Amino acid sequence: MNSPQSSIVLLTVFILVISTWWIFRTLKEGRKAVEEMKQEKSNDN
């Protein structure tokens, strides 16, 4: 593999890692928000 190809592969891996981290973080925050909404709803009744 020449230098430009390895740079593109490295950049792709970096983007995939950041994207995966962001997706899992967003899903975790979403689940937390749903749980908080459920608790607030049960406290209102």
What is the SS-derived class?
A: mainly alpha
Q: In what range is the share of β-strand residues?
A: under 5%
What ranges have pLDDT less than 50 throughout 5 or more consecutive residues? none
Shape: rod-shaped
Helix content: over 70%
Number of strands: 0
How many DSSP H or I helices? Answer: 1
- Biggest beta sheet summary: none
Order of helices and strands: H
Q: Indicate the radius of gyration in whole angstroms.
A: 20 Å
User: What is the arithmetic mean of pLDDT?
Assistant: 94
Distance between the termini: 64 Å
Give the helices and strands, then pairings.
Layout: H1 3-44
Describe this structure in words.
The protein is an all-alpha fold. Helix content is 93%, strand content 0%. It is rod-shaped, with a radius of gyration of 20 Å. The model has no long low-confidence stretch (mean pLDDT 94).
